[in-house]
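Researcher: We're reviewing a set of sequences before deciding which ones to prioritize for further study. For each one, I'd like a predicted 3D structure that I can look through quickly. This is HEAT repeat domain-containing protein. If possible, include the structure in token form so it fits the rest of the review sheet.
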Amino acid sequence: MIKEIGFFKQTEATPILASMLETESSSILKISIIETLGKLGHQEVEPNLFKLFPMTSKDVQRAIIKAITHFKTAEGLGFLCYSYNRIFDNELKIEVAYAIQQYGEEGSTALRELSAKSNEFGKKIFDQVTYQSGL
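Model: Here's the predicted structure for HEAT repeat domain-containing protein, in token form for your review sheet.
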């Protein structure tokens, strides 16, 4: 039912979904809520996603990354760059790098800055993202 809200673009339901996100304990439902809020462009939830990110499972974190990428705000880009440096899971790190790249020129600049400060593995991630995106 939550995904149907996004499919039918029922933006009037976004406040209810946002409030459910704060109280929901099921990861599966949280993911559905986050994905739907992302599709609906409900940027007001972004600060809550920032707070939620470090305390959730990897699957919920992936949904948060995807939603933040949908919003494409400057705060979201800053959060992704900040998170990249604090994530220890290499798969998630790669996903964050691809999300940063989706911010266009600002993302490309951020990737170059992160690459300059990164270790060898980090540089390989950025090389891969840059090669895949054709930059």
